[in-house]
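User: What would this chain look like folded?
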Amino acid sequence: MKLRECDVLWNKKVSSGYFHMGVEVGDAFKAARAGQFVMIKTTGEGETLLRRPFSIHDVREDEGRLVLELLYKVVGPNTGVYAKLKPGHSVSVLGPLGNAFTLPEKGAKSFLVGGGIGIAPMLFLGRQLVEAGHDPSCHTVFIGGRSKEDVLSAEVFRGMGLTVVETTDDGSLGEKGRITVPLERFYEKEKPSLVYACGPHPMLVGVAQLMEGRDALCELSLEIIMACGMGACMGCVVDGRDAEHPYHHVCIDGPVFDAKNLNM
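Assistant: Here's the prediction, encoded as structure tokens.
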């Protein structure tokens, strides 16, 4: 974990309310793993009071620079500040933080499930799988959203060779309805060894319930408000199922959890 000032390289609007930012980072991020997150704070003009957690969307080399990529949604004044950042601005980055997804054995099948901005950590996971030599055809990405504006990164996944299944609540793109419907259908056919999911709480509850009693490992990446990201503020507590450990801190125990260990 490192704290550093990083230059913004780009900050592009990719859909209604969604932005894709790239910042130059140091060698510490070469060890970053899919599922981890960073705490970001703007500096200078428009400086924010508290840091905000962002899933690591990707980490890659670009023209000799190591670039941390973030995919985020503007939901209020705080994230609205980030949307105004231009190349040349700097941000304070604390990370990488938290734990990571469990990578499957080669040849094993997995499902990557993202609802809305919950797709953010799945791209880094998909890239790590491909770069580790996994067969892309063994991994299927499920992307859900309220409308087509909320379905993000589908073409990037397809460009890596992964199968993509899209759903929208209003039927404006892909299958109409909840992401758990095709997820269950594909599960019965493919029998994956791992199911990864990140997104709104109701979606995660649906995925956890679907996977209850099934053989696959189901890992959930939780989205929750954090003030510090290091376990000091105690503001990101969730309920666990273990009587000896009835609570978990998302920032230090997660953000990735085995669904069996959470009381959803």
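The CA atoms of residues 2 and 28 lie 7 Å apart. If you want, I can go into more detail on any region.
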